[in-house]
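Teaching note: in complex prediction, the entire set of molecules is handled at once rather than each chain in isolation. The prompt given to students was simply: 'Predict the structure of this complex.' The entities are:
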Amino acid sequence: EISEKLESALKRIKGHGKISEKNVTDALKDVRLALLEADVNYKVVKQFTDDVKTKALGKEVLTSITPGQLFVKIVYEELRDLMGEGAKEVALAPNPPTVIMVAGLQGSGKTTACAKLARRFSQKGKKGMLIAADIYRPAAVDQLETLGKAVPVEVYYERDEDDAVGIVERGLKAAKSKALDYVIADTAGRLHVDEKMMEELTDIRERVHPHETILVADGMTGQDAVTIAKEFSSTLGIDGVILTKMDGDERGGAALSIRAVSGAPIRYIGVGEKLDALEVFHPERMASRILG
Amino acid sequence: IARGGGDRAGTLESIEELLIGADIGVRTAGAIVEKVGSSGISLNEESVRDTIRNEIISILSGTCQPGVDLLVKPHVIMVVGVNGTGKTTTIAKLAHRYKTAGNQVLLAACDTFRAAAIEQLEIWAGRVGADVVKHKPGADAASVAYDACSAAASRGMDTVIIDTAGRLQTKKNLMDEVAKIGRVTGKVVDGAPHEVLLVLDATTGQNSISQAKAFSEVCGVTGIVMAKLDGTAKGGIVVAIAKELGIPIQFIGTGESIDDLAAFDPETFATALLG
Ligand SMILES: Nc1nc2c(ncn2[C@@H]2O[C@H](COP(=O)(O)OP(=O)(O)OP(=O)(O)O)[C@@H](O)[C@H]2O)c(=O)[nH]1
Ligand SMILES: Nc1nc2c(ncn2[C@@H]2O[C@H](COP(=O)(O)OP(=O)(O)OP(=O)(O)O)[C@@H](O)[C@H]2O)c(=O)[nH]1
Ligand SMILES: [Mg+2]
Ligand SMILES: [Mg+2]
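The expected output is the structure of the full assembly:
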């Protein structure tokens, strides 16, 4: 159940009559290695191990007859609690349509996520619309259109339009006139350091006031997850996160980095390319996965 | 400026953190720092950085450079990698490079799975002046590759670049498929695929090693393209890949336009990594 690294951390603490601060510090070295190998950002790891150390040096561990077990329990629970509450899906607004905007880096899985969300809403009997606001990527509109037909959900698009903000605005207007339950605006992938492109997102936000802005992040993201989450959080504001491509063998430490920096709830994980490959986020499962 | 013993440990520790923060990986970072730390060089910060930089350059330059045989026509390049790393865009950049050098380029639309994958490749082909061989969506990817290589051979074209669907390396049936695509090209053109380029995403962490291992085992990767280096991620994982697997880095991707491809240079990369 627990990883090699944690086993070795356990061994450092077990078999000692009395646990010393040094035993805990040494065990934390193994925890640090496990988290770094899992792609958790090194600054987030430092904070995490400091917090665990404080808890672990509490009287409980030092006087327990199974200090190793208790230590591992503290590590696991601290990680699980940091992951946030589970199953906090996107809430539909009291007055429709619920406006959802999806953003993130190039290739993270946004367009696919939009279609998956629409599939999820339609399974709950909601009627909505996808807005194709990626005006840059070749065949982006075709991609969303094709996925939309497969959901099935209506897709609003304007070919040869160079104003993404206007497209979202007009799409929302169309959705209101049809009394739809939700709209999901798919945006172009962009770098958090691209000022002009980040401004496009804040322009969209200011124009249509989304109820939910979702950061779609690649589950295999490494140390950079902290910078990405920080920029999107401070510039745009993130209400929820979807972590994609979690059907691979990556440990997914980006989840902890993103949570630690943005405080936004991870709502779903993408577990495949098909439209039903979207799962509600489970913090305990994520904690176990990261710990390896 | 670090001078004494305590500062020495501090300097090494902060450089190790910088390397970890660049996605070099804790093991490789530790090995590099240990080698430099035990080398007995003067431990002021500048000389530590220089020594680390040189160690990284040496690791990156040490990968075996396969002699790319450009004598066989068409020269067949297969591009592989996990989902969304930048394969299709990289192919457009490569095609542009080959066209600019006077080659006739054919693109094979072997991503027959993802929505609008063929349309995306066709638009790029139009922009760079390359031809496309495609079938209907859902068609067998290997047969598209077969037809593309046959067409290029019969038309006397110089270069075939094969676009494949993104696939996670843990999916056995998809990895079998990419191996099959590679084998099929060899039936049409001697020694094909002459190059197999693995496109990695610079923002990806340690999983890139697992990707490089798996793709290498299944279809023999001859070179790596590290895309999206125009972001804040440093792509340090290539140092670990060079050290553990010896696969050379051929190109880096620095943007979304056809000119945003540069030949990999270990010195420039090592300097940027420590910057
Ligand atoms: N295995 C797997 N693949 C996924 C998942 N989500 C998306 N993908 C794939 O990842 C690739 C990129 O997905 P897109 O939806 O095009 O990503 P994007 O963020 O819209 O890309 P840009 O618009 O170019 O920024 C495609 O091949 C998708 O099929 C997932 O959860 N698992
Ligand atoms: N900033 C930046 N973006 C890039 C780079 N290379 C590709 N992209 C973008 O990354 C996204 C995905 O690129 P694709 O070429 O579709 O990736 P792919 O690997 O073919 O994706 P799949 O076929 O779905 O697996 C697109 O939005 C590209 O414009 C790069 O070097 N820098
Ligand atoms: Mg997209
Ligand atoms: Mg592609």
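Point out the following to students. Chain B is about 50% helix and 15% strand. Chain B touches chain A through 40 residues (CB under 8 Å).
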